[in-house]
Amino acid sequence: MSWENIRKIIHVDMDAFYASVEQFDNPELKGKPVAVGGSRERGVVAAASYEARRFGVRSAMSSKVAKRKCEALIFVKPRFARYKEISQQIRNIFLEYTDLVEPLSLDEAYLDVTFSKKGRPSATLIAQEIRKRILKDTGLTASAGVSYNKFLAKVASDVNKPNGIFVVTPENAQNFIDELEVRKFFGIGKVTAEKLNKMGIWFGRDLKQVERFELVRSFGKSGNYYYEICRGVDNRPVEPLRERKSVGAEQTFSADLFQMEELESKTEEIATVLWERYEHTKAKAKTLTLKYKYADFEQHTRSKTFLGWFTTHDELVAESNALLHAEKFEKGIRLLGLTLSNFQHDEDRSEPVQLTIEF
């Protein structure tokens, strides 16, 4: 395979975006371990600076655990309006090079630069130029992955983080995949990686030895995806105009949860992830759904629709916990999920409406 007649995809991922914004806006935080979200006593970390990550602090971690890992951790209240403002600046830079921009969240996006507006044939040069522009215009660093499909570009962007770039060419793609640990494959989560490891599959080269039918039997339709990506095949296009009808987040637990306190903590973690994704949609969601699955895979959902829409992270957490407490759990919980739907795509409505339950 050569670069001729194939797509040129860039995945740009901002480095510790929320925390980096806070450090840039407040120089006193520079070089210090910062956690965006939560507090010293309770809550969940939405993002952590690289200084905090060295101590093991991660997003979606409870504040108490984060504080135990890093005594000097500084908690900062999230400013989502500010993050959206800078995200739009970055988006505008992308659009100078191509209209094929697919945002994944406020801090990352795919770009198809096969036919760049600036006529530059090298995707690598474009990625380097974009990173320089982002630094110049926002003061923030970004990492980038460059390849011929979305899977490889996404994985590549993580190789030289922070503030780095990595290119996977058609010529070296298979060797790169063969040597890649399956836990680092985009689309393979922690639980799936553990299952693959138990099957003796640790690297891409191991995954490539498994027949398609066996992967589908073990992992359902995802098995087809695993079979393709370990061979460097990913034909998904960059989709700039997707209109989402819902947004969700869920978590499968390695051990079943029985205590309400544990469930509350996990629900807040999931709500924090969901809020970031919801912010990106720019829509106004009126329906919240809680999903839970028992250890025996029996699944239940409970939804609530409001007259208004969600305007703050705290509202989402509060209503998610309200749905949680409305349930009478009979067995251990292996999965929790939250979904926002019933979107109102009305950009002219700027005044929030108080959440009121429809009876």
Descriptive report:
There is one protein chain. The protein is an alpha+beta fold and 359 residues long. Among the domains are: 17-79, MutS, DNA mismatch repair protein, domain I, CATH 3.40.1170.60; 172-238, Orthogonal Bundle (DNA polymerase, domain 1), CATH 1.10.150; 246-344, Dna Ligase, domain 1, CATH 3.30.1490. Helix content is 36%, strand content 21%. The protein has 13 helices and 12 strands. It has helices at residues 17-25, 50-53, 63-69, 80-95, 123-138, 150-156, 173-178, 190-198, 204-207, 212-219, 222-229, 260-281, 313-325; strands at residues 9-14, 34-36, 47-48, 74-76, 101-105, 108-112, 142-147, 165-167, 246-257, 284-294, 299-305, 333-344. Strands 5-6-1-7-8 form a 5-stranded mixed beta sheet. The chain has a 4-stranded antiparallel beta sheet with strand order 9-12-10-11, with helices on one face. The chain has a 3-stranded mixed beta sheet with strand order 3-2-4. Strand 5 (101-105) and strand 6 form a beta hairpin. Helix 4 runs antiparallel to helix 5 (123-138) and helix 12 packs across helix 13. It is globular. The model is unreliable at 347-359 (pLDDT under 50). Its main location: cytoplasm. One of its GO terms (molecular function) is magnesium ion binding.
CATH superfamily of the domain at 246-344: DNA polymerase, Y-family, little finger domain
What CATH calls the topology of the domain at 246-344 is: Dna Ligase, domain 1
What Rg, in angstroms, do the CA atoms define?
21 Å
Strand content: 15-25%
Number of helix segments? 13
**Percent range of helical residues:** 25-40%
**What is the first-to-last residue Cα distance?**
60 Å
CATH architecture descriptor name of the domain at 246-344: 2-Layer Sandwich
Largest sheet: 5 strands, mixed
Cofactor: Mg(2+)
Subcellular location: Cytoplasm
GO molecular function: damaged DNA binding; DNA-directed DNA polymerase activity; magnesium ion binding
Catalytic activity: DNA(n) + a 2'-deoxyribonucleoside 5'-triphosphate = DNA(n+1) + diphosphate
